[in-house]
């Protein structure tokens, strides 16, 4: 299949997953990103297509990430008064979530006997893919592993996050949004917007602040820890 066909197949897979998710009333396991990813992976395996030929078309989708991120400014503008009032607790919650994400990833991987390059790749698992790959590159980690674990983290967070938060009695849309954005970056933010614009806005803010703070602090921390 050509790059253009893979691009079209990816878009069609996501549209099919989106329709399926609506048919089942947005069941957590019917996350569109998860379903579309499985469809694309199955198609690649069936046609014996490597990541290189696929990314020839996938790069067009990566290009659209920029405009999509900028578009988050629209709901942020509409909900700016709420974000400004919650600035203090919001900063504390994002800081706590960011530290927890890094610490749990490092502790779990270290306990399982992971090598240092693997630890360096897993640490930025809760930020967006470009930031995680940049951190992995600057600290000696594996960029491909960092990208993969970021995507897996986002999908798991989007699928389990809302269910777990509801089970814990955390139903405030702002709190749910901050949790999803801090733990599951863009995929979690997309899930938060499915719940409400308010939740999506706070998730987008959390994703952005967590990404910037992690990019500034984590490389120094990892170099200090692992030399």
Q: Helices and strands in order, then pairings?
A:
Blueprint: H1 3-23, H2 32-46, H3 51-71, H4 73-78, H5 80-85, H6 87-111, H7 116-122, H8 129-139, H9 143-167, H10 173-195, H11 197-226
Helix pairs in contact: 1-2, 1-3, 6-7, 6-10, 6-11, 7-9, 8-9, 8-11, 9-10, 10-11
Could you explain how this protein is built, in words?
The chain has helices at 3-23, 32-46, 51-71, 73-78, 80-85, 87-111, 116-122, 129-139, 143-167, 173-195, 197-226. By secondary structure, it is mainly α. The protein is globular and about 50 Å long.
Overall mean confidence score, pLDDT = 88
Low-confidence stretches at least 5 residues in length (pLDDT < 50)? none
Assembly state: single chain
Tell me the structural class: mainly alpha
Q: What percent strand? A: under 5%
Task: Give the tally of β-strands.
Answer: 0
Question: How far apart, in Å, are the first and last alpha carbons?
Answer: 45 Å
SSE topology string: HHHHHHHHHHH
Over the alpha carbons, how many angstroms does the gyration radius reach? 18 Å
Question: Helical segment tally?
Answer: 11
Helix content: over 70%
């Amino acid at each position: 299949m050509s790059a253009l066909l893979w691009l079209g197949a990816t878009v069609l897979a996501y549209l099919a997953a989106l329709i399926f998710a609506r048919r089942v009333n947005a069941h957590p396991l019917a996350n569109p990103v998860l379903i579309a990813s499985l469809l694309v992976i199955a198609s690649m395996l069936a046609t014996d297509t490597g990541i290189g030929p696929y990314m020839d078309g996938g790069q067009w989708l990566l290009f659209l990430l920029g405009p999509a991120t900028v578009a988050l400014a629209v709901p942020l503008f509409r909900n700016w008064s709420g974000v400004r009032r919650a600035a203090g607790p919001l900063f504390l919650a994002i800081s706590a979530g960011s530290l927890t994400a890094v610490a749990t990833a490092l502790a779990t991987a270290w306990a399982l006997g992971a090598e240092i390059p693997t630890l360096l790749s897993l640490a930025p698992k809760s930020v967006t893919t470009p930031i995680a790959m940049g951190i992995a590159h600057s600290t000696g980690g594996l960029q491909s592993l960092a990208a993969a674990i970021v995507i897996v983290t986002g999908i798991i967070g989007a699928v389990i996050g809302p269910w777990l938060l509801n089970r814990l009695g955390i139903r405030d849309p702002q709190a749910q949004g901050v949790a999803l954005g801090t733990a599951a970056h863009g995929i979690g933010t997309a899930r938060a917007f499915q719940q409400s614009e308010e939740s999506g806005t706070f998730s987008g803010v959390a994703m952005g602040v967590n990404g910037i703070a992690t990019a500034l602090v984590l490389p120094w921390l990892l170099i200090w820890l692992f030399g």
